[in-house]
């Protein structure tokens, strides 16, 4: 449950990365986004987006139980987090990122990427 | 704090192997805003007068705009500028993709490169790390081949621009390639990089761009994406992209055919956007932040082999297709692939190949010089000519000069059908019955390029009726079934040409694509508000930005005057074919441009611009725009 990516329509524009960081980090910086767009060219000539599907691997790896399931979304509780970074390599798509203060952060299902994607390549279920 | 900008200029001296960073000059920002504004100013001020295009002292400039890289539609354009080897004057070329935004995220709004590297090299830019690295292993290789290899070596996230063999061999219309199918095509920009021994530039940036009001920009950015979705062209124009205009151009008698001998063909259905979708397309491929991706990435199958290629877009379809009488979409896509790989501009390539085919047909080029018996519409012939140009073999060495230089060497009456202005080959709109469009080509600062002016819709409207201000989507979704088209009116074209010449390049100043405005009609008010949230400054698009765009026009004209000893009116004429030969068939059959009309249009145009009768800005005009040149 959560974000779903459809690579038949994605055109690699990264508008999703842009809105992700502006919405959540108040910054213009796609490299900090909580999803990752990339192309494979020349062969097969397609775009892919790595997304957080709330698989929970980060939560499982966290020794402090700081990553908590709220509804359908795993959220990092900064009060419990001791910045050990165990969650970062645990993410199968490298989308647990580290902020300027050394705290991990991840997708919170804000769905802004779904709203903005001009190609309807991202949906939410 | 300078909002909307990364805040730095990067200076690279290849001869000295030196890299310097300095704060972005406030005067540039205040007076010239960004992109094309920056490049025109810097080229005029910093290029030593009268250096040859391939002299190490000629600057190679990269500039981003204040909207580049931000959360708003199509903020991914990069502007390049240099003294053009094709024209000997002001030259710039614009490219989509993801390269420039990475330069900006790395911290650089402007990059100025001079000198010449001692050995084949590439420039590596990763945030604060800037290095000139050896590129011997890549020299001589094809553009996408090098891009693949570099991504393999450095990582997928690095954005790479390359030149091909043609750039290395200083072909006057060599391009820069990027992102497996995006180019800065025109004015021989790739040859200038080649003359500096630079095979590639690699960029990765992971810094934030400071903006004045992040919340405001977030809200307005979302609104602007939503507004694009509401435009009829969002669904109507995007699927075929620029190729969607092919049939309309053929229907209105503007499709270059057989080296511009005529303007109509009977096989447009075989080479149009629908043919691309049916035969080639794998995916839509767009530039950074673009909601209406015009790129069609596909797979072409020919007797010469199967290739992956982005395109062909309209200019390629018309110039390497009908203009060379190639009526097979797979074949056109294959020639597109060859151009990308050897690194030559598909627009100029189509004009040069068709010129060569006509010279050959007339016996001006021998079979021995050509290296094979070449024919119109024959894929092998076209690919052969492209390859000998890139390698500069046989007549290819002459053709590498472009049609103007080649006609001078080949002689006979070939200059009459060398289709260019100022040395830059004409693009995909035959204009014998489109006086505004023709005037736009004639007076463009870089030579015959549609990126500076496109008023074909209004020209057609003066002849057959219709909305002079229609967007491209309006035009192609309307009715265009004409048996004959009456003569278009030239009387009132000047104001429209001026407006278009200021409007289209305005987007190159901001650092965005113009097609959201041009093709689907996104209103300029959006850009004003986005600019405000980005920079904290108010800008009236129609007054302030278009006034700057006009100022740049005068500045570039003065650059041309400084660099070309006898520059003036005589550089503003179309080739003789357009005023001596009647269009032989199609809806514009019988029409020819009148030399008297050309003179009249030039007089009116110069007067409206504040230029003297030789086409040089008057002192009063320069003062009005606060230009001290
Ligand atoms: S916004 Fe949509 S089309 Fe653009 S990169 Fe993201 S998923 Fe792909
Ligand atoms: S419309 Fe085409 S050229 Fe313009 S930004 Fe979109 S993909 Fe790039």
UniProtKB/TrEMBL annotation, chain A:
PROSITE patterns: 4FE4S_FER_1, 4FE4S_FER_2. GO terms for molecular function: 4 iron, 4 sulfur cluster binding; metal ion binding. Pfam families: Fer4, Fer4_4, Fer4_7. Residues 1-31, 45-71, 72-101, 104-125 form the 4Fe-4S ferredoxin-type domain. Transmembrane segments: none annotated. Keywords: 4Fe-4S, Electron transport, Iron, Iron-sulfur, Metal-binding, Repeat, Transport. Gene3D superfamilies: 3.30.70.20. SUPFAM superfamilies: 4Fe-4S ferredoxins (SSF54862). This is Fe-S-cluster-containing hydrogenase component 2. It comes from Desulfocicer vacuolatum DSM 3385.
From TrEMBL, chain B:
Residues 5-207 form the Aldehyde ferredoxin oxidoreductase N-terminal domain. It comes from the Bacteria. Its cofactor is tungstopterin; [4Fe-4S] cluster. Pfam families: AFOR_C, AFOR_N. InterPro entries: Ald_Fedxn_OxRdtase_dom2 (IPR013984), Ald_Fedxn_OxRdtase_dom3 (IPR013985), Ald_Fedxn_OxRdtase_N (IPR013983), Ald_Fedxn_OxRdtase_N_sf (IPR036503), OxRdtase_Ald_Fedxn_C (IPR001203), Tungsten_al_ferr_oxy-like_C (IPR036021), W-dependent_AOR (IPR051919). Keywords: 4Fe-4S, Iron, Iron-sulfur, Metal-binding, Oxidoreductase. SMART domains: AFOR_N. Belongs to the AOR/FOR family. This is Tungsten-dependent formaldehyde:ferredoxin oxidoreductase. GO terms for molecular function: 4 iron, 4 sulfur cluster binding; electron transfer activity; metal ion binding; oxidoreductase activity, acting on the aldehyde or oxo group of donors, iron-sulfur protein as acceptor. PANTHER family: ALDEHYDE FERREDOXIN OXIDOREDUCTASE, TUNGSTEN-CONTAINING ALDEHYDE FERREDOXIN OXIDOREDUCTASE.
């Amino acid at each position: 449950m959560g974000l779903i990516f459809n690579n038949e329509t994605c055109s690699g524009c990264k508008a999703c990365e842009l809105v992700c960081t502006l919405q959540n980090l108040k910054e213009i910086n796609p490299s900090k986004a909580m999803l990752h767009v990339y192309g494979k060219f020349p062969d097969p000539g397609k775009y892919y987006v790595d997304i957080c599907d709330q698989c929970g691997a980060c939560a499982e790896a966290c020794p402090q139980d700081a990553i908590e399931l709220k509804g359908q979304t795993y959220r990092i509780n900064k009060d419990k987090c001791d910045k050990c970074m165990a969650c970062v390599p645990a993410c199968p798509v490298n989308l647990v990122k580290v902020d300027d203060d050394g705290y991990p952060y991840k997708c919170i299902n804000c769905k802004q990427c779904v709203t903005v994607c001009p190609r309807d390549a991202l949906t939410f279920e | 704090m300078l909002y909307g900008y990364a805040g730095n200029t990067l200076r690279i001296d290849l001869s000295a192997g030196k890299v310097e960073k300095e704060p972005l000059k406030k005067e540039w920002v205040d007076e010239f805003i960004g992109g094309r504004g920056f490049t025109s100013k810097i080229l005029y001020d910093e290029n030593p007068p009268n250096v040859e295009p391939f002299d190490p002292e000629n600057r190679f400039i990269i500039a981003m705009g204040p909207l580049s890289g931000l959360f708003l539609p199509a903020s991914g354009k990069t502007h390049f500028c240099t003294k053009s080897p094709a024209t000997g004057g002001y030259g710039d070329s614009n490219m989509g993709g993801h390269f420039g935004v990475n330069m900006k995220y790395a911290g650089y709004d402007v990059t100025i490169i001079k000198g010449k590297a001692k050995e084949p090299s590439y420039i590596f830019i990763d945030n604060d790390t800037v290095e000139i690295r050896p590129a011997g292993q890549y020299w001589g290789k094809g553009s996408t081949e090098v891009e693949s290899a570099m991504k393999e070596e450095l990582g997928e996230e690095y954005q790479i621009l390359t030149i091909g063999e043609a750039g290395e061999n200083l072909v006057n219309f060599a391009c820069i390639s990027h992102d497996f199918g995006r180019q800065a095509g025109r004015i021989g920009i790739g040859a200038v990089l080649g003359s500096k021994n630079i095979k590639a530039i690699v960029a990765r940036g992971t810094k934030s761009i400071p903006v004045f009001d992040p919340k405001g920009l977030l809200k307005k950015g979302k609104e602007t994406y939503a507004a694009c979705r509401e435009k009829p062209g969002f669904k109507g124009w995007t699927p075929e992209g620029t190729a969607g205009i092919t049939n309309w151009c053929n229907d209105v008698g503007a499709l270059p055919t057989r080296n511009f001998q005529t303007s109509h063909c009977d096989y447009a259905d075989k080479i149009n956007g629908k043919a691309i979708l049916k035969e080639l397309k794998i995916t839509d491929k767009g530039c950074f932040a673009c909601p209406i991706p015009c790129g069609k990435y596909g797979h072409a199958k020919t007797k010469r082999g199967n290739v992956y290629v982005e395109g062909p877009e309209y200019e390629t379809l018309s110039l390497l297709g009908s203009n060379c009488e190639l009526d097979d979409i797979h074949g056109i896509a294959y020639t597109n692939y060859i151009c990308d790989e050897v690194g030559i501009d598909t627009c100029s390539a189509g004009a040069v190949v068709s010129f060569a085919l006509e010279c050959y047909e007339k016996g001006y080029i021998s079979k021995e010089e050509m290296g094979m018996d070449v024919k119109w519409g024959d894929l092998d012939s076209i690919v052969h000519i492209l390859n000998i140009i890139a390698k500069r073999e046989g007549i290819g060495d002459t053709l590498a000069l472009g049609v103007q230089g080649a006609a001078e060497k080949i002689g006979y009456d070939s200059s009459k059908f060398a289709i260019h202005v100022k040395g830059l080959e004409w693009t995909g709109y035959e204009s014998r019955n489109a006086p505004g469009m023709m005037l736009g080509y004639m007076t463009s600062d870089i030579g015959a390029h549609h990126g500076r002016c496109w008023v074909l819709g209004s020209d057609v409207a003066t002849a057959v009726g219709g909305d002079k201000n229609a967007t491209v989507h309006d035009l192609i979704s309307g009715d265009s079934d004409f048996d004959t088209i009456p003569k278009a009116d030239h009387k009132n074209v000047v104001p429209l040409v001026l407006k278009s010449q200021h409007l289209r390049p305005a987007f190159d100043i901001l650092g965005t694509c113009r097609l959201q405005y041009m093709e689907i009609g996104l209103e300029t008010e959006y850009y004003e508000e986005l600019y405000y949230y980005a920079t904290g400054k108010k800008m009236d698009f129609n007054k302030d930005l278009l006034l700057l765009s006009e100022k740049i026009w005068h500045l570039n004209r003065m650059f041309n005057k400084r660099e070309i000893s006898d520059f003036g009116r005589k550089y503003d004429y179309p080739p003789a074919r357009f005023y001596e030969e009647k269009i032989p068939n199609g809806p514009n059959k019988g029409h020819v441009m009148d030399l008297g009309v050309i003179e009249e249009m030039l007089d009116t145009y110069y007067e409206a611009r504040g230029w003297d009768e030789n086409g040089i800005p008057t002192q009063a005009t320069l003062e009005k725009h606060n230009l001290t040149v």
